């Protein structure tokens, strides 16, 4: 028996796909045959990723959009369905800490910090999913909704509490949507990476800390963006057709660790 994954004929939408985890997921979905629609707030980044995918033999559409605009999600999904006739896979990858700051003590967060972090990591994903799932249900073929969560939701997260709380709420949204959308054939998942060696992470954290993260995991290694792309392809494929509502940790076993590295400057 030969096992292959073929997403040919399917259309995938990936937000935050201009770099890092989103970029890797877009490459892997395209490599499996899906046409990918790459959404990011920076036009030069989506154009570059679309060109990379084209050079590798895949097909991609670049879309620059500010997803903080409440109407952007509906517009993007409508355009995708109008242009391609369907939406089969959606990856809600947008989510980050406020620009220019990694973490800080809980008592130092103000109301605007709270709203910013929750909006970026929960509200934008929920608004995206509403538009995406609506198109999948209307299309009558079902589909796959993926959310990028975080391994921070599996343990206390000092100096990162609001981010972890927003991602934990995202995990609960996944289970609720799986029950609600399952009868229409829409499967829902959260992918929860550990510390992932994206360009941004490597640039923001010193090598000593990244080595400590790797040493603290049972597998003694970092997570690579490429590995999350592989997981997304599996979940979107028929190989996972009996699965839904799952929270899948991809953290090299970090959730099992009894030790936790301290972020530089937070000790």
Architecture overview:
The chain is an alpha/beta fold and 267 residues long. It has a single domain, classed as Rossmann fold. 43% of the residues lie in helices and 15% in strands. A seven-stranded parallel beta sheet has the order 3-2-1-4-5-6-7, sandwiched between helices. β1, α1 (20-31) and β2 form a beta-alpha-beta unit. α1 crosses α8 (225-236), α3 packs parallel to α4 and α4 (111-139) runs parallel beside α5 (161-181). The longest helix has 29 residues, at 111-139. It is globular, with a radius of gyration of 18 Å.
Mean pLDDT over the full residue set: 89
Query: For this structure, what is the CATH homologous superfamily?
Result: NAD(P)-binding Rossmann-like Domain
| Strand arrangement, major sheet | 3-2-1-4-5-6-7
Task: Provide the β-strand percentage band.
Answer: 5-15%
Low-confidence stretches: none
In N-to-C order, the SSE pattern is: EHEHEHEHEHEHHHE
Number of individual domains: 1
* C-alpha geometry: globular
Q: Work out the helix count.
A: 8
* Rg calc: 18 Å
CATH architecture: 3-Layer(aba) Sandwich
What's the CATH topology label? Rossmann fold
- CATH class category label: Alpha Beta
Structural class call reads alpha/beta
